[in-house]
């Protein structure tokens, strides 16, 4: 999964709020890659 796809998937998972395990997995991968999923964080 590309970095862009990873961030978009994470944002969608947070918005839906249904699949918290998937959001956590995506967040771990984002942190591992050193990405910032939101501009103002």
From TrEMBL:
Organism: Cytobacillus spartinae
Superkingdom field: Bacteria
Gene3D superfamilies in the record: Sporulation inhibitor A
One Pfam family it belongs to: Sda
A GO molecular-function annotation: protein kinase inhibitor activity
The UniProt record lists the keyword ATP-binding: no
InterPro entries the record matches: Sda, Sda_sf
Keywords of the record: Protein kinase inhibitor
Name of the featured protein: Sporulation histidine kinase inhibitor Sda
């Amino acid at each position: 999964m590309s970095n862009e796809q990873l961030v978009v998937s994470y944002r969608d998972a947070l918005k839906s709020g249904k699949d918290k395990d998937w959001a956590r997995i995506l967040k771990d991968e984002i942190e591992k890659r050193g990405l910032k999923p939101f501009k103002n964080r």
